[in-house]
Amino acid sequence: MAGTKTTKKLRSQEWFDNPDNPGMTALYLERYLNFGLTREELQSGKPLIGIAQTGSDLSPCNRHHIELAKRVRDGIVAAGGVPFEFPCHPIQETGKRPTASLDRNLAYLSLVEVLYGYPLDGVVLTIGCDKTAPALLMAAATVNIPAIALSVGPMLNGWHKGERTGSGTIVWKSRERLSSGEIDYNQFMDIVASSAPSVGYCNTMGTATTMNSLAEALGMQLPGAAAIPAPYRERGQISYETGKRIVDMVREDLKPSDIMTREAFENAIVINSAIGGSTNAPIHLNAIARHLDVPLDNDDWQRVGHHVPLLVNLQPAGEYLGEDYHHAGGVPAVVAELMKAGLLPHPDAITANGKSMGENCGATENMDPKVIRSVADPLKKDAGFINLRGNLFDSAIMKTSVISPEFRDRYLSNPKDPEAFEGTAKVFDGPEDYHARIDDPAENIDEHTVLFMRGAGPVGYPGGAEVVNMQPPAYLLKRGIHSLPCIGDGRQSGTSGSPSILNASPEAAVGGGLALLKSGDRVRIDLRMGTADILVSDDEIARRRAELQNDGGYHFPAHQTPWQEIQRGMVDQLAQGMVLKPAVKYQ
Ligand code: FES
Ligand code: MG
């Protein structure tokens, strides 16, 4: 445990220092000497530390890790360890077709194999772009050797004409202006490019800032490590400290299962509400928990997190961006605000530096209360997720921090008489179908329509597409109607401020209720009761189900690659973390 040195023989010595089997030892050893390592480095009990490198030319968000790894190596050597940097399967959120989340489990699998099969005593997980954090934490959970995460850090703030332009969020905003003819194609490109002014990951509170903050909230990063912008000098310094610390974690045998406990996940859920974290967070944290055999489900997200206020004023829920978040104090300042109000459930949870969350963060000063608000003066109250269920699905997540005040008063928090919301369904089968039909006036989409996206879950659109936040037709935008309720079995970008109902599980492709929905059905959503139902009789539902079965089930596009087929055959649903079902028994 933290602080105490273990006398356990190092794992790497089974490879490099095993006199009982000199033949194998020599074979292992000679090839690792050939690039200049010495027997003293490999055989004298120095911890061998992997640096799981996620940066590459294909992964621009994480590419700066190639530079940072030099400082990590310096730290490892300074503490008496030996660094071994190796590449991870690239996962670039914006560049990978059909979707980067298809590759989360592939990167997980390949890292498990590396950590298990090579002589590593501990590992630095270089995280950043959305899926890299969960993929690497899941692998560390499965293999359970000492591990510490290191964020690459967000990009600098984007600016255009004196206003902050935030990653992703500016795309959703500007494409409306493009659709309505307010700006042209080239103006649109310039505005969006302004949001990416430097190396680093998305500067909004999208899935990257969320997952990097939550890696710290879980205790898997050094305090303050999540929010430092990628180009800042502190980023290199924390990289060095991270390299030093992992060597001591090996000596203390401080493992992922010691840090990522049920208590740590409850802390992370509360912190996620306070930061206004992405709806991808429950998918990824539920997945990490499953690989540790820690019970965690979407009901926990509502029960532990819904009553927590939104404190962090970052786009898309607020105004500011990553640099501002860092200047205000990042995760430690958020934790300190929560602790002042008694809202952090487990201040005693141990973290990677061997101290508790409370010891690390309790005294942190909030340097900018405009960016990180206090619990007494929050951006929004009760800002965590709610978990909905009904005859359409067993579980779907709604991010309440982005619901408009009018909608919230009317449908969620009016203490006297919150109404249920009713509308008429318009159903799309995948993003291509949506794009083909949304602007067609014959579809009769109006302000009473609820847009449904199905065929977008982990099986239907392999990996689960971020397509549920659907823009209304151009003719409604021109009339000033900027959003319609959206529900779907896919995901939504964390940079979107749409109050969609997402991650519906089970998805249509595996026979979930959404497969039975027809355009024109009336739909009733009661946020207060946590229900979403089609208003058709049980008999009609049974009839449609029989019809669907006769038709061979819900149809989805053919596999395009071997991995798509392999994953579709064994992937679990979004509510269950979208893990590979056979993988969770390896703990
Ligand atoms: Fe990589 Fe947002 S696209 S961090
Ligand atoms: Mg995304």
Automatic annotation (TrEMBL):
It holds the Pfam family ILV_EDD_C. GO terms for molecular function: dihydroxy-acid dehydratase activity; iron-sulfur cluster binding; metal ion binding. Belongs to the IlvD/Edd family. Transmembrane segments: none annotated. Residues 370-577 form the Dihydroxy-acid/6-phosphogluconate dehydratase C-terminal domain. Gene3D superfamilies: IlvD/EDD C-terminal domain-like. This is Dihydroxy-acid dehydratase. PROSITE patterns: ILVD_EDD_1 (PS00886). Residues 46-360 form the Dihydroxy-acid/6-phosphogluconate dehydratase N-terminal domain. Keywords: Iron, Iron-sulfur, Lyase, Metal-binding. Its EC number is 4.2.1.9.
